[in-house]
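Lab notebook, bench 4. We co-purified these components, and the gel suggests they stay together. Before we commit to crystallization screens, I want a quick structural picture of the whole thing.
Request: model the full complex, all chains together.
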Amino acid sequence: MDHGNLTLEVQAHLLRTLAHPARLYILQLLRSGEVCVCHIQAVLGERQAAISQHLMALRAANLVRTRKEGLRVYYRIAQPHLLEALDNLRPLAIGAAGANARRAPRLRLMPSRGRCTCPRCQPGPKASSP
Amino acid sequence: MDHGNLTLEVQAHLLRTLAHPARLYILQLLRSGEVCVCHIQAVLGERQAAISQHLMALRAANLVRTRKEGLRVYYRIAQPHLLEALDNLRPLAIGAAGANARRAPRLRLMPSRGRCTCPRCQPGPKASSP
DNA sequence: AAATCACATTCGCGGATGTGAATGTAGTCT
DNA sequence: AGACTACATTCACATCCGCGAATGTGATTT
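Here is the predicted assembly.
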């Protein structure tokens, strides 16, 4: 009977966790597979601490999982249907854009996408080695 | 061009608009059709101004539309797939509940559901089916 | 017209949130 | 071991959001 009330708060918390462009972008980055933090940092262009906090929020919500490999930490999507659910929500945002799109933290992306020092970003012959 | 960046902010804004248990509950109330403000007020048990602010946020995001009938204002879902998209997101929230329960505004519902003075709630002694 | 109703809007305050600077920690290298 | 890397965490501060109180608006009734 009262299943609606508590669920609404939990769901609101999930939406709140998702409601940041940096976190949305991180999730989109993880769409094709696991990605190291240095890669996210290189693409997002934000400070390391800020990204770590966003990742902490995503971890606290059980939306991502981590795997350590040497020094790097690789993040991956924990819930397989998350991106699909976000994709379903996107067309509604387009309708919302016409009205009031005033409040939302701005996200600045680096023009050079994906230039970090991790071995996965240097798959080419010019690799600087490990 | 470069619509990816802006879209993330717009989508984040939409998620932020949805990220409140009262607004989620209002949207669930509108699932079966249009509902007057007095009804929402009676069910939610919140002050009138607070509800009006939530409704204002939903209107600003183009998620609901209004229709005036005499003194009352009836709200209805503007985007037909909104509730479906929210339903798809719900199972992910269940997974998030087990981990770190961060704070989210709490929602208190009135035990007597749907006792407002609008003609739709009065005439039928049967259960409220707006 | 005044009063009233149903709802919208504004303002101010307390708490939550995002960001930057600094610090902490685990793993790797020489 | 010490230096270094990659990432996590803490603290302080500015900002944003939600709520209550008060006020405004439009339609209806008297």
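The mean pLDDT of chain A is 81. Worth comparing against the SEC data before the next meeting. Residues 36-38, 41, 48-49, 51-53, 55-56, 70-73, 103, 105, 117-118 of chain A lie near DNA strand D (CB under 10 Å from a C1').
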